[in-house]
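Suppose a colleague, Dr. K., hands you the sequence of a protein chain of 136 amino acids and asks what its three-dimensional shape might be. Before reaching for any lab equipment, you can write down a predicted structure in token form. Begin with the sequence itself:
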Amino acid sequence: MEYHRLPQDAASAAKPMPAIIMHAFRTLFALFLLAMVPAHADTPQQQWVGDLPIMEGMTIEPELGFAFDSPSGRIVLVFAAATDSESAILAYYDAALASLGWQGGGGSWNRGSESLTLGQVDTSVGRLWRIRLSPN
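The predicted structure, expressed as tokens, is then:
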């Protein structure tokens, strides 16, 4: 077996890249991967507020809602705009919440020591759906 020694210029070209160049390369690669991810998640399995599912097509109004733990349990209030009909929205929540162990329907459900209500309300930004989770 015959080995050939690389010329001095070729040997210097084989040195490892400086750390700054490797960091820049990794950053560009990460940005490329992020660009491949869809800009929004439109499936019910990907849209959640806490453990509350948010129906596909609903747009949450973040400045109107809140969530906190009270001495008697958690309280979550979500406001969302939707273009779907009332019957379609209630049917979605009847099915989605039943699969999560909630009992009830038509805008009012219970699970353990918590209740969840869903209804339309008039707000400063227009008519929205209010999803409220609170202790019984």
